[in-house]
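Appendix B. One record, verbatim.
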Amino acid sequence: MLLQKDEELQKNQQCRPTTAETSLSEIQELPEGESINITETKSRIQRAVDMRRNDGASPLFISCAEGNIDIVQELLKHGANAEQCTKDGISPLDMAFESNSLDIVEMLLDGYVSVNKQSDKGKTPLYIACKFGYVKIVRLLKNRKTKVNKHKKNKTTPLYIASKKGHISVVKELIKWDSSAKNAIDIDFQRDDGNTALFIACKKGFTYIVQVLLDANATVNIQNKIGETPLFISTLKQKVECSNILLSRPDVEVNSYRHDDQTFALYQTCRFGNSKLTTVLLQHNANINQCNSEHETSLFISCLYGHEQIVEILLQNESIDVDKCKVTGASPLYAACQGGYERLVRMLLRRGANVNKKTLKGSTPLHIACETNRLKIVHILLDNNAKVDVYTNDQISPLYLASQEGYLKIIKLLMKRSMESINYFSVDNTTPLYAACIEGHVDVVSHLLRNGADANITPFDKKSCLFVACEKGRSDVATYLAQETNLVHQYSTYETCPLYIACRNGYLDIVERLVCFKDYGNDIQINCILASCENGYRDIAEVLIKFFNLYAHNYTGTTPLHLSCENGHGNIVHLLLQNGIDVNSHNYQNETPLMIAARNGFEDMVCTLLEFNADVNKTDNDGNTALTLAESNNFPDVVDVLRQKMFRH
């Protein structure tokens, strides 16, 4: 009978899910009476209560999760292992806490679980109670002489987790723990990352906990592994009340900084525009000229973000350095000009900021104001003796930048003050006029030319203003320059003219305007037509053949028809043939257009050429005909077309 029951137990354990009820039923089905083998029966009971699912969950674990105190009690009575964890390291006690079953928690702690036992993840009963804020359990554990500083693997203590979760009552209980030296609360205990309970309370903004910890003599200036203090993190997270509490401590260190970027508390409050905290920090002797790793001061960051009230507070401090720059050389005034903050610019200038201070690249506040179209700020700077004819390391003037961006009002304002830089060229030999032409600002181009800008100044590659306008497709500028200057026939270093570059880049409207000008030589004519045909611009080719010699060729004997065939532009081939181009012209290798089309397998193009009487029997310098070229390149359809043509003849 006993053997039979034992086999049934094993069978049931394999065939059905392990649940608390199943385990309990197995226990209840055990035979009673004097004939029972006590040793074997106890063994079977132990196996029943410790059955586990695939995830390692025991009947006791499941009962704790479900909050079923009766089954928990029965399982414990029959010897269930209360410290047995799942494969994920979760214990029955964890689940009792999770399900808010405090009666079960108390039952487990009443002799079934060691009060200082750590789970696979290093959590003690006290840690779990503190995490969930169960002050009653905390008190129970306190009476059991639990070790209050026992921590997880990352050194997270019960006090830390209670402070992080905002459980003020639990924090108070922990602070009042056993006062004996061996088990007194370590209020400044640091995790692996160096964070303390005070740090995390400040980060989360739990004001009451911060106050309680400080009243219990928590050290206010402890830095974590990256140099952050409680004050730093409270200002970073903008926890104003916590910051105020910390600043009420006479020993608080206000100038400590984070290691990586050397950011500090005053910088943070200025960055976020918190005037109250900024004032309090300054009252506690915060270093107003302290810099971060980029050499940005609190004044600089305030100007960068446009915080007028903060800047006003900072400028009241007599020791402030208004011209202290970041690593790039940008001053607070430069930052204010860049952001367009007119009132800040006035405030800084009244406080004596250097209006002409340069960055490391030589840019001044006037440069950045012109580049970013800050017209009113340009007025302010000029009224405060900003230099107009000032140049960057690349010899760029404020006028150059305004011309490049197309800000005509600023240009006029600058030119009223000085005309010196109108023809001043940069390191690459470009002028304000040239920059305006590149960007297509025709109103600026017109104004500069009327006021003495020299259109003949070119960069080292000799590309004229008109040339770059054509190259970039700036049709309005190109039209204006063609009419107002003598640049139409001016060549670049590469012997190309504006019309050619417009043809090559496909700008039809510019071509239509420039082609009307006379005196284009044969080389220009053929190069323009070749460029349009090579790139497939049929509309441009159609315009050009009305004005230029269609029968011309370059020094290799290549005609527009050759290039069109080479690149597969059938629509241009048809256009050229309709306008009388020689279908049998040849280049220096004696290749005809038909040979080129056949070699590339362009069947439709071959048919078109044949319609216009292309000679199928012509040979190149190597003795190839169109047919042999098509055969050698494996284009059978082209071969068929050519053979049919030959047989007809």
